[in-house]
């Protein structure tokens, strides 16, 4: 029980320190100015010496100076989207084509993952290396689009 509480406080400590360091970076505060803020407000020269409530207060002070805490949802902005789509390989181009068709059809990436499972027995399109299988997915999406009346006018 005591270790769970210690782990929780360590998690809070780590999160608070990360937020403080992000704020320092976002606001462009030099190390000397940062330590001056700590000394003026808390009489301490390091955020690691602050208590949980003092770190919360420091975060409030940094927010008053213009720090905006942004959600770290960059990874989950498009859930299921393969991360290996960058580059100019034929595979990456096929994946971008699939993404474009999904966008036109307003379908989530999970739709293509289930198509890959049904058509080829692959759990996730990320693991498909065969270009003919990717072309099969593209063809199936095009046919689905024709059936559902997607606007495929911009397609090459």
Architecture overview:
This protein has 156 residues and is mainly alpha-helical. Helices cover 62% and strands 0% of the residues. The protein is built from six helices and no strands. α1 runs parallel beside α3 and α4 (90-105) packs parallel to α6. The protein starts with a helix and ends in an 8-residue tail after the last helix.
Largest sheet: none
| Gyration radius from CA atoms, angstroms | 24 Å
Into which percent range does the helicity of residues fall? 55-70%
Give the count of structural domains: 2
Shape: elongated
- Average pLDDT figure: 85
Regions with little confidence, pLDDT below 50 for 5+ residues: 1-8
Structural class: mainly alpha
Quickly count the helices. Answer: 6
Strand content: under 5%
- H/E topology pattern: HHHHHH
N-to-C CA distance = 61 Å
Q: How many runs of DSSP E, i.e. beta strands?
A: 0
Would you spell out the secondary-structure blueprint of this structure?
Layout: H1 2-27, H2 31-42, H3 52-64, H4 90-105, H5 109-120, H6 131-148
List keywords for this structure.
elongated; 6 helices; mainly alpha; disordered N terminus; about 0% strand; about 160 residues
Short summary:
This protein has helices at residues 2-27, 31-42, 52-64, 90-105, 109-120, 131-148. The protein is mostly helical. The longest helix is centred in the first third of the chain and has 26 residues, at 2-27.
């Amino acid at each position: 029980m005591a270790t769970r509480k210690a782990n929780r406080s360590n998690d809070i400590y780590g999160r608070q320190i990360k937020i403080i360091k992000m704020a320092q970076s976002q606001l462009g505060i030099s190390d000397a100015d940062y330590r001056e803020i700590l000394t003026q407000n808390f009489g301490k020269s390091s955020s690691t010496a602050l208590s949980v409530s003092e770190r919360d207060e420091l975060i409030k002070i940094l927010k008053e100076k213009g720090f905006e805490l942004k959600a770290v949802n960059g990874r989950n902005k498009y859930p299921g989207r393969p991360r290996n789509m960058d580059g100019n390989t034929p595979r990456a181009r096929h994946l971008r084509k699939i993404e474009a068709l999904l966008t036109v059809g307003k379908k989530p990436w999970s739709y293509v993952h289930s198509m890959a499972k049904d058509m080829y027995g692959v759990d996730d399109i990320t693991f498909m290396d065969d270009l003919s299988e990717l072309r099969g997915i593209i063809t199936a999406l095009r046919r689905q689009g024709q059936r559902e009346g997607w606007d495929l006018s911009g397609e090459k």
